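Person: Please work through this fold.
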Amino acid sequence: MTEYKQEFIEFMVEQNVLKFGDFTLKSGRRSPFFMNAGAYVTGEALQKLGEYYAKAIHEAYGDDFDVLFGPAYKGIPLSVATVMAYKRLYDKNISYSSNRKEIKDHGDVGIFLGSVIKPGDRVVIIEDVTTSGRSMEETVPIIRAVGDVNILGLMVSLDRMEKGKSDESALKEISKLYGFATNAIVNMAEVTEYLYGRKTGNGVIIDDDIKARIDAYYAEYGANA
């Protein structure tokens, strides 16, 4: 595992973004872990988060693209933080774009916030975490309605590696449905492997009990490899 992935796992725990315990998800599943990207609230945290995303996107997609699209609302700060980090780390100017929930009909009209996507643009989509793929059902048509746009792929921060609508993960389902690559900064297998039995400032995050509950969760809800 690369160093930035290890640092990102520690960062999620430090920021109280990734928690372990007993949580009921929107899907109704009871999960031994929960991720809340809304806990990144400070300038320092968003700066670091943008750098982790930038490193992962650069590794997966290079820098031959024009626009980083962050679906409203959580995707807006993610895309802004990441394009700023991209400039710092790789001296590459990438534009950010997002969608409005309601189309503006005066002044700066249209559905796009930030850069207006144009035919010929190469786009990477950024999100926090994807468990069902529902956000892509709205996002992809908005981007492709422009015309000849090349969506290179999607980057999320954490791949939960659990079943989506089928026995495959939501990320794999998205890739098959829309025909572009999907990636994550880290996945839960990497998180579990790195944190299991490891002592941190808060003690051992994943002990034998939590590990057993994670294993049981994936025995029931884990996606096909």
